[in-house]
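Continuing from the previous page...

OK, I double-checked the sequence for FxsB family radical SAM/SPASM domain protein against my notes and this is the correct one:
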Amino acid sequence: MDLSPHPLSQFVLKMHSRCDLACDHCYVYEHADQSWRGRPVVVSDEVLELTAQRIAEHVRAHRLDFVHVVLHGGEPLLAGPDRLRLAARSLSTALSGVCVLDLRIHTNGVTLDEKFCELFAEYDIKVGISLDGDRAANDLHRRYRDGRSSHAPVLRAIDLLKRPRYRHLFAGLLCTVDLRNDPVAVYDALAELAPPRIDFLLPHATWDEPPPRPDTGTSATPYGDWLLRVHDRWSDAGRPMGVRLLDSVLRTLRGAGSLTEALGLAPVEFAVIETDGSLEQADSLKTAYDGAPGTGLHVAVNSLDEMAAHPGITARQQGLEGLCATCRSCPVVRSCGGGLYAHRYNSADGTGGFMNPSVYCADLKQLITGIRDREERRVSIHQPPLSESHLDEIAAGFGGADAVDRLARHELTVNRELLGAVWHESPHDDTGTAAWETLAGLDTEAPESVDAVLAHPYLRPWAQRVLRGGSDAGPIAMRGVAELTAAALLRAGREGTVTVPTGSGVLRLPTLGALVVGDAAEARVTGEPQGFTVRVGEREYSVSHESRADAAWWSRRRFELPGWAVALEDTDPWRDVHGYPLTARLSATASEEWRTGLTSAWEWIRRELPAYAPGLAAGLSVVTPLRESTAEADISSAARDAFGAVAIARPGSPQTLACLLVHEFQHVKLGAVLDVADLYDPSCERLFYAPWRPDPRPLEGLLQGTYAHIAVVDYWRARRRTAPDAEARDAEVRFARWREQTAEAVDTLIGSGALTDLGMRFVAAMGETVANRLTEPVDADALLSARRTAVNHKAAAAAKD
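Thanks. Re-ran it with the corrected sequence; updated structure tokens here:
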């Protein structure tokens, strides 16, 4: 377990410590911590400047590409436009040329006017508004001190943000759940305002001060039931906007990262700067006890590295290992993540108060399992593998999270069918039969854990190897079934033992890692409350949640990046399907270099290629490191039968890594589309010129290359806009070349006579995207150079033919 602190990338900067409303559910004023009483009312110039300098210093030290800062309170608008401008200017100046700044403000909105909006437009400050529903729902809590309703002023603020001039600033609405309000009425009132996102929050509570549960009847999970009704209304409406809590459940159920600290196992990487310059933990801790968020650190004295190393911060960065035994054994823990840290507090637990399940434990389990069951029914009963609208999205070269998620679900179905074929066509021994029966039981009791293992990209290469037959097919089949079962058992947190035949001296546990076991015929894998053990002969290996694992254990490195969970796969022997030499097990240093590179590349994709980001985050779960080329060439690959994985030799820059990721994921997407749709006549044996290859390609190869080059065109389109002057002309030439040659390839496909009707529609949509790029002006010299290169390439290819 990596105990080193993560760098901080998210900050809450308190602008004003008082509020113009008197909301009776406010965690700042109405809960245990009352430190606001001793804070300065308004943040000082000095604290603003110091904060900006500290963040810039931290960013440089850790080479961060992106930081998020939220201006908060109290009510931050009370600080006034001049003070807010100073905060924005200080942060923008300090971080200019250092990293991208995502600057936001969260407000009750009652005093928002055009003067504030002009300031926010100047500094691109996104605005989130608190609103609990219609007037009756909102007025339960959000009133002025004299009892007046705040509903009308908030609606005026939202109307202002919805004007065309300011619409891009509207970040969304935040709503605190109250069981007395009808969930459908609340959702409808918020949805009617057409926000880009809604965020539902559970009211802050602890085991010492449990949440209100008025008129809950016989239900033991009223908050879970309330949110499920919102989910159903949202889904029935076609999910017209993001709902952060519900989206996070959906994402974590498919193995992706959460969008909120209230769910999932991703490390928390943020700090609060109070109006007096104190560095504190999350505000939600104010609900636990007086002084709970405090660290004793101050922006004038302490670095953000010191803040990152504070025990209260690192305690929230340990993932599964940082949870209590009850949470670790729960089948939905990878979605729930133990819930919000503050909600775990119990002063009577004797361990510091936070090693407990959430006070909303039953509600969260009800919500997660309810959404899981609804999604399974939605996919199996109502949804074809890919709807027409989703196919059109993907055909254009992109595809959002829902479209790619449908592909992933279909690929999981294919993997399940392959596993069934392996079982039915292979001879069974007692070990394999016992493993299969255990897996079948887990599939009923903990299906999400089984799905997570069966979605492993390298299951299909193993299954195909078995189904091709051969003298070793039987042993390979039984070993693989046992490995999958053991991994599912451990992911589910269940106690029990699986006997796994071993080969090549390594015990493979797909999605988890591998254990070096030497010359043993079998290993007994036993799940335990604190981790698991592996017994090989007289030797026992222990992998514990509480301490560092046995040195022989090669844990899979999984990185929770903002909005994307991705693993490095350097242990699975079936990853050898990419046509290039693989790396051996990476060192900790090399793994960290990959984390840094992927973090930077991902931020670049989100910023410069945002149309590709949602689909990539939904469908790309594994990066397999390749051995670097001695010729210093960039190497990458996507295997047709390894959905969810790409293989890459780590390049020299995050921008190049970003290009390789989006390029190869295009192949991954299209490969999955070809599993559900017939786009061409497979009997076509003609070969076609491909502008990116020295050799002619079969029709599917040309289709794959053309589709992938839509992303290449967009990469160079972004690079010519963002590259340093010394590299900008080369980017311009490459953009000019690839857009024309990709358009030429589209024409070749359409003229091939081998596309089906659906294939013609698909390729026509590809062509529309490329045609849009052809309308953009390009420097005449760059265009001439691009065309000269294209002509030379075609002539060279023809000479070899």
